[in-house]
Specification:
heterodimer; A: about 180 residues; mainly alpha; B: about 425 residues; alpha/beta; globular
Chain lengths: ~180, ~425
């Protein structure tokens, strides 16, 4: 996997921090569920590796992983244990995971604290936006075909918003895997 | 949809495949209520402590004097006459084989197969569930919107909505919902405000998602579970939104106006009723669990049984007042297991000894089963007092009612509860 070692812009910076928190929060969650010892949550900024392609993702995220990663991707901070329990309670209460994920994503995206790029920034430089949203949410760079497709969609569809693109990616199959 | 008693002829679908014919149906809807948590016949149909189930059972036997003052106030039964008058009561039904654990009992109830001590609490059933049998062996195949598993808790029991059995699985599973958890106030607060996209952007979102999914090689595998088709998912989401609004506005606080409080069993039945009214599924299974307090509180067990009984009466009343379900629904009520014949060492405030259900003694295998339905379908007011009927007979009976039993020969060890039917 390619090693990210510098920041190119604000999206990149956001991706890196949130992705780092993502992995750290997964670790904290797993430790929390594995034993009863009190765990002090501490997040630090480190470098993160990107996948070189989507095909490297073979494992379905667990319930807790999915929720905590979703939360950190949207809020750029780790999820608290109490919030994780609340969201996980809903997640585990419905058999149709695609449906409950859809509901959870739309609910979290409605939170004013969700950090989603504004439309002006997206339209100012669609290619940068696409690359950064891929890095942030899918932890990889888009393929040339993906970058062309999404950039073209942004330029062609004036009604398309960053919210739409975030929602589409968060509800994609790939987002459920790592 | 076939009407009761009608024969559905095979037909060619646009794709060119020929569906097998569905057999004759006795009714178009089945509700199976697991009167669960472990109920002994002694306290239920034998009424050793009086009639604790006046919504379901005839009789005015007084509740034992030492516990009666501990019973919570409940409204009068929702039914004009106890449920047994609308159907057939098997007083000596049996959970014949297998450990007398809740999960074993539930698994047997939804698969029609007995289990043994090797049953894993973490694994899906090894045999097809009634939901899968129903969805796979109807013509045309039924969507998940027609098949619901309403569980008292989101722990363990949700995985009974489909099995690992080859050829079945999530494609034929039930919509599972744990309303007590999903619709808790805390959970509702997290879900009630959703981002509302302009409907005109739905196609744009779909285009991007399809493009991405097409590029992603792994795709969703069986471990991701049941998935409704988009139209059905939209219907369910709209219903959920409505319920969530009701919860956060306080409109669903004690909707039955129970003088004391609505127990989680009652809420589970309440939401099962809401599902029935909204979607009119052909198959719905719902469980209750409150009586399991009996591990430490015998009086509480009796009280929980009264609440569960009241809820079942309300359930039948709702069915009969819901167009599309009235006079076309068979309700089956049975505990998943009984409880031990001998008490443990815990004594409650009224001096009553508590009961477990773990030693597998004969008493813990004694349960009842009630089959209620339209007079043209189910014998009314019939009581079978001799030992007859087993837990494994319920799934074949549901298959028979919904007309697909002939499609699954040799798959189920039990038989149809024919004594109940006209």
């Amino acid at each position: 996997m390619a090693l990210i070692s510098n920041y190119s812009n604000k999206y990149f910076r956001a991706m890196n921090i949130s992705s780092i928190k993502k992995y750290l929060s997964i670790g904290v969650v797993l430790i929390s569920f594995a034993c009863k010892r009190e765990v002090v949550q501490q997040y630090e900024v480190n470098e993160v590796n990107l996948y070189t392609s989507a095909s490297e993702k073979k494992n379905l995220k667990t319930d807790e992983q999915f929720i905590s990663i979703l939360y950190s991707d949207l809020f750029e901070t780790g999820i608290s244990n109490s919030k994780l329990q609340e969201l996980n309670q809903a997640y585990t209460s419905m058999g149709d995971k695609s449906l409950v994920i859809d509901i959870l994503i739309k609910s979290l995206m409605a939170d004013p604290g969700a950090k989603i790029p504004v439309e002006n920034d997206m339209r100012a430089n669609p290619a940068d936006f696409v690359e950064n949203v891929y890095k942030k949410l899918l932890v990889r760079k888009p393929t040339p075909q993906e970058e062309w497709f999404l950039t073209n969609q942004i330029e062609k569809e004036q009604d398309l918003t960053p919210m739409d693109i975030y929602y589409s990616i968060l509800t994609s199959d790939e987002y459920r895997y790592y | 949809m076939a009407t009761a008693g009608a024969m559905v002829m095979p037909y060619m679908v646009p794709g060119g495949s020929l569906f097998a014919p569905t057999g004759t149906r006795r009714a178009n809807h089945v509700v199976f209520c697991l009167f669960a948590g472990g109920v002994r016949n002694m306290e239920s149909v034998h009424k050793n402590d009086g009639n604790l189930m006046p919504s379901m059972l005839n009789g005015n036997e007084s509740i034992s004097s030492d516990i009666v003052s501990s019973m919570s106030a409940l409204p009068s039964p929702a039914l004009s006459s106890p449920l047994q008058n609308f159907g057939t009561l098997y007083k000596e039904f049996r959970y014949d084989q297998g450990p007398t654990g809740h999960f074993n009992g539930h698994t047997t109830a939804v698969t029609g197969q007995y289990t043994n001590s090797s049953l894993s609490l973490l694994d899906r059933p090894q045999h097809p569930t009634v939901f899968e049998l129903y969805r796979k062996h109807n013509s045309p195949g039924m969507s998940a919107l027609n098949s619901w598993w309403i569980t008292h808790t989101n722990n363990l029991y949700p995985i009974l909505n489909y099995s690992n059995y080859s050829g079945y699985g999530p494609a034929y599973g039930a919509n599972q919902l744990s309303p007590n958890d999903f619709f808790s106030y805390r959970s509702a607060q997290n879900l009630v405000n959703k981002n509302s996209f302009p409907s005109s952007n739905a196609q744009l979102q779909d285009d991007i998602r399809k493009f991405m999914n097409g590029n992603f090689g792994a795709g969703l595998n069986a471990s991701t579970g049941l998935k409704n088709n988009p139209d059905d998912a939209a219907k369910i989401e709209a219903w959920i939104d409505k319920v969530l609004q009701g919860i956060t506005s306080g409109g669903l606080n004690n909707p039955w106006n129970i003088p004391s409080y609505m127990s989680s069993d009652m809420y589970n039945i309440y939401f099962a009723e809401e599902v029935l009214k909204e979607f009119k599924p052909e198959l719905l299974v719902v469980n209750m669990f409150g009586v399991d307090v009996c591990h430490s509180d015998f009086t509480g067990y009796c009280n929980a049984m009264r609440r569960a009984d009241w809820a079942v009466g309300h359930l039948w009343n709702t069915i009969q007042n819901t167009p599309g379900l009235a006079n076309d629904t068979v309700l089956i009520v049975a505990p998943e297991i009984g409880r031990n014949g001998t008490p443990n060492s815990i004594v409650d405030a009224n001096g009553r000894a508590a009961l477990d259900h773990t030693n597998g003694d004969p008493v813990s295998k004694e349960i009842f089963c009630m089959v209620a339905g339209p007079p043209s379908v189910v014998h009314q007011g019939k009581v079978i007092t001799q030992e007859k009927g087993k837990s494994i007979d319920i799934v074949p009976t549901i298959a028979n009612i919904l007309g697909f039993d002939s499609e699954i020969p040799g798959l189920l060890p039990g038989g149809v509860l024919n004594d109940a039917f006209v």
